[in-house]
C-alpha cells in the first residue's frame, strides 16, 4: 500500500501587500526586493484572521477534490510555527471546524520543512496500516511575528495554508520515499526569541522586540542550498532515479536566488521547476502545498509524473519527498 495524494487545496487572505506598499513602510524599493528575493506580492492576514481559518479552508478544498467527507479522515496533522495558541494544537481546532470526528489530530513544528516532515509521518502511518485517510496541512500567519521595521525580513514573509488529502492505495502511485534531517547546532540562525519558556510573555518581550523573527540571512542561504541539494539527491538515489526523471521540482518558496541555485546544482531546466514565490512570498510550511495545489489545478501535473519536493527551514531542518502522481 502506498500513501497517495488524492486531493489538494490552499487558502490565503484577501489582503495583498505589494512591494510598493512596503516602500511606504520601510527604507526599501521594489527593485531592491525583487533583485534579492524575487518577491513582488504577499498575502497578509487581517487582525481577526488566524492560522486555523486558512488551514480549515485549505483542507475543505482538498477534501472536495478528493471527494471524501471529513468524517472519513482518521489522521490530521498541521505543520505550523504560528499556531493559534501554544495549546491546544491548531490541528484540534481544525478538526473541530471540519467535524472530522474520527481523526487523531496534532501539530508538528519543523518550520519551512514542516509539510514534508508531516508527509513522512503520514507515509509511515499508512504503510503500517495505522491510518487509511489523512489530511496534511501546512499553515502559517507569519505576518504577526514579522518585525515590520526590519527591511531585511519584513519583505520576505506571507500568510496562507495548503493541504493535501492522502489515502492508502495499492499500486505504484503515491509517495515513493521521504527524507528528513535536522541540525540543532545552528538553531540561532533563524528563530523567534519570544514568547516561549526562555522569554515568557511580559514587558521584556515588547521592550526588546523579542516576539519577532530573528534571521541571519546570509548564513541561512548557504546552508539552505547545501541542505536542499543533499536531500534532493538522497531522494533520487533511494529510488534509482536521476534529475532527468523528475517531471516537476517543487522547492520551498523562500528566495528566488536559493531556488535558482538549487535548480542549477541539480541541472534542472525551466520546465521542471515550479516557482510561485513572486505572488506569495515565503509562507514557510504552507509554501510547498500551496505550490502543489497551483501546479495540480493548473495542469502542470499529469498521472505518472515524478514530483520532487524539497525544503529547508529553521531548526535547522531540511527534507525531500519523491512522489509518483
How is the largest sheet built, in terms of strand order? 1-7-6-4-5
Uncertain stretches:
none
Helix share bin: 25-40%
CATH superfamily of the largest domain: Thiolase/Chalcone synthase
Q: Structural class, judged by helices and strands?
A: alpha/beta
Shape by Cα distribution: globular
Mean pLDDT: 97
Class of the largest domain, according to the CATH hierarchy? Alpha Beta
Kindly state the number of beta strands.
Answer: 13
Q: Largest beta sheet, briefly?
A: 5 strands, mixed
Q: Using the CA coordinates, give the radius of gyration.
A: 19 Å
Please, how many helices?
11
Q: How far is the N terminus from the C terminus?
A: 15 Å
Strand share of the residues? 15-25%
The run of helices and strands is EEHHEHEHEHEHEEEHEHEHHHEE
What is the total domain count? 2
* Architecture (CATH level 2) name of the largest domain: 3-Layer(aba) Sandwich
What fold name stands as the CATH topology of the largest domain?
Answer: Peroxisomal Thiolase, Chain A, domain 1
Explain the layout of strands and helices.
Layout: E1 2-11, E2 16-18, H1 19-23, H2 30-37, E3 41-43, H3 51-66, E4 75-79, H4 90-98, E5 104-108, H5 114-127, E6 133-141, H6 151-154, E7 159-169, E8 174-182, E9 190-191, H7 203-207, E10 214-215, H8 217-238, E11 248-251, H9 256-265, H10 277-280, H11 287-297, E12 306-313, E13 317-324
Parallel strand pairs: 4-5, 4-6, 11-12
Antiparallel strand pairs: 1-7, 2-3, 6-7, 8-13, 9-10, 12-13
Helix pairs in contact: 3-4, 8-9
